[in-house]
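Hey, can you fold this one?
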Amino acid sequence: MWTVMDSPIGPLRVVEHNGAITAIEFSPFVDSDGRVRGARSDTDPVLVETVRQLTAYFARDLKDFDLPLAPVGTDFQRRVWDQLVGVGWGETASYGEIAHRLGMTNAASRAVGLANGRNPIPIVIPCHRVIGANGTLTGYAGGLPRKQLLLALEQDALF
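Sure. Predicted structure:
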């Protein structure tokens, strides 16, 4: 099942399957990627709670999500995504730092970047918090303007 919510970074489609969130998608939405979505439901409890938590996040009232997640990916991708959850609100990490947390060298940075870019549950699994080694913003599946907005939202010093 899925629902759509408005957000400061545009409409988001939140997808649930078997009681867990499997995707958060940026508009424009793509339906031909093979993901299981099912029918729209604006009353499913998991979707309602996810929308509630995302709304609180965008209002700066929630810093840590507590949702059932089931991202679909390879073992390596899931290991990277698990590390991303450890990058807290207002923090950033480089691709190399994530590689080191996985017990790898900087040579794995590119693989970490590819896994980061395939994160199916952005925002909740905070791939926007991963930046280049020199502190620059690098690619983001939702586009750099969205990444900039998400990072700015999390900077307490700005508010």
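Residues 2-58 form a domain with the Double Stranded RNA Binding Domain fold (CATH 3.30.160). Let me know if you want another pass with a different chain boundary.
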